[in-house]
Design a protein that fits this description.
The chain crosses the membrane at residues 183-205. This protein is α+β, with helices and mostly antiparallel strands. Helix content is 31%, strand content 22%. The longest helix has 19 residues, at 190-208. The two termini are 36 Å apart.
């Protein structure tokens, strides 16, 4: 399940929320269905299940804002008083560990605010689809029409790879990722998967025995001014590097690339220097290159591909954030060309009935890192005023808590990156070692990066 928790700065009417949930399920019946096994892979049914629950909470908005929403700091700051586990427990009450419902809504009514949690099956939806569903929910609240739902092409036996729109122009210096390279990014088959699971179990055992550092989950706030300053310095650095016949980085890394490169450095800043391999995996939406549904229509879909960048511990430690961010930017460009996306989709279609996992090069303590970017979602634009108990008062989102439940175990270092709805900064919800978190203050110094 993909869970999106929202703290809204007004007390909302539970009856209106429940009624709107039922309206949305009626309009988009796939949300009222269930997830079930039909041999393999999983299958989805449509229905009319309205999985909505509410409860009263004794806290108020100040209880959460005093824990750092929004914080004011000149550099990245760990919000020690803001516990991801406490937030999850507050948002996700009465949610079965293995729920088969496709969609659920939970509302916790605080004294002067509301905590809303939307859950969607990850088999059906990615982060973009989750955001679109919440936006449709807000449209229904406000009495606005929503798009008509269509089944996505792949649920009707059609190949998404045939719907990829060719590029009008292309940069010859950006190498495409072909079928064989995509396939090599994944582990397929019983024996490789078994070896991966044994490696995971071994690392978890070492942590339980105290023989290696455990991973701890934290919320970190990165001020917009700091991220902007690091990116400005990175652009200046990359512009002065000599051009290479075969580019090794892109000269225009995004803010998201900067945050990802910085997070990699926090993880490996205290690890012994070595040439041990490290895989960076990042989800990428392929919606922009797939022909969309007709105007006025929408399909809920998990349209996610995976980017893989092969690095080493020494490389992460030695290279600047600018160079690392440039590498990640170039990898993004390569993986998001229409031909690269088409090759990725064909790999998925050819292996749809098999278990496919990331192909991790190393077998050390942290050989893989994954960062999920939600920085493109404008949660501040969501308006819940139509459900406010005081109709004259606007009801806006003041904090977002993102979670994919299956990723909570902290097997590998991973993170969600989100744009703050207040102040223009960024939130990072991530797993790191205690020593990595303790080194955060040093890595907040722009001159060190």
């Amino acid at each position: 399940m993909v869970f999106t928790g929202l703290i809204i700065d007004a007390r909302l009417d539970v009856n209106i929320l429940r009624r709107t949930t039922a309206e949305l399920v009626k309009a988009w019946p796939v949300l009222g269905g269930k997830l079930y096994r039909k041999d393999r892979p999983w299958a989805l049914s449509t229905g009319s299940i309205v999985d909505f629950e509410s409860r009263e909470g004794h806290q108020d908005l100040a209880y959460w804002t005093q824990r750092g929403i929004p914080p004011s700091a000149p550099r990245p700051t760990i919000m020690d008083k803001l516990s991801p586990q406490e937030l999850d427990d507050t948002f996700m009450f009465n949610v079965p560990a293995k729920t088969t419902n496709v969609f659920l809504v939970r509302a916790t009514m605080l004294r002067d605010a509301t905590m809303l949690c939307f859950g969607l099956s990850h088999h059906l939806a990615d982060g973009t689809a989750s955001y679109d569903v919440i936006r449709a929910y807000c449209d229904l609240l406000a009495g606005r029409p929503i798009a008509a739902l269509l089944l996505p092409p792949d649920s009707q036996g059609k190949r998404l790879s045939d719907r990829v729109t060719p590029a009008k122009t292309s940069d010859p210096s950006v190498r495409r990722i072909g079928y064989a390279e995509h396939l090599a990014n994944f582990t397929i088959g019983l024996w490789p998967v078994l070896l991966l699971l044994v490696s995971v179990a071994w690392n978890l055992l070492l942590r339980r025995l105290g023989l290696q550092e455990d991973l701890e989950e934290r919320y970190v706030y990165l001020p917009a001014e700091w991220v902007g300053a690091v990116r400005k310095r990175a652009l200046e650095t990359l512009s002065m590097l000599p051009a290479d016949p075969q580019p090794r980085w892109d000269s225009q890394p995004t803010k998201n690339n900067i945050i990802n490169a910085w997070f990699l450095k926090t993880i490996y800043s205290t690890v012994a220097r070595s040439n041990a391999p490290v895989d960076f995996y990042g989800p990428l939406s392929y919606r922009p290159v797939v022909a969309p549904p007709p105007p006025g229509h929408y399909w809920i879909h998990n349209s996610i591909g995976l980017l893989r960048e092969k690095l080493t511990v020494a490389q992460i430690q030695q290279e600047s954030v600018a160079t690392l961010a440039g590498r990640l930017r170039l990898a993004t460009l390569r993986y998001t060309t229409p031909s690269s996306i088409q090759a990725y989709l064909r790999v998925c279609e050819d292996h749809a009935g098999r278990r496919v996992l990331p192909n991790i090069q190393g077998r050390g303590t942290t050989p893989m890192v994954m960062v999920t970017p939600w920085t493109g979602f404008d949660f501040s634009a969501l308006d819940f005023s139509a459900a406010s108990s005081a109709p004259s008062r606007p009801a806006q989102v003041v904090f977002v808590n993102a979670l994919v439940r299956e990723m909570r175990e902290g097997v590998w270092p991973s993170a969600f990156t989100l744009k703050s709805v207040q102040g223009g900064g960024y939130w990072l919800r991530g797993w790191n070692t205690p020593s990595g978190w303790r080194n955060l203050d040093r890595l907040g110094d722009i001159d060190v990066l």
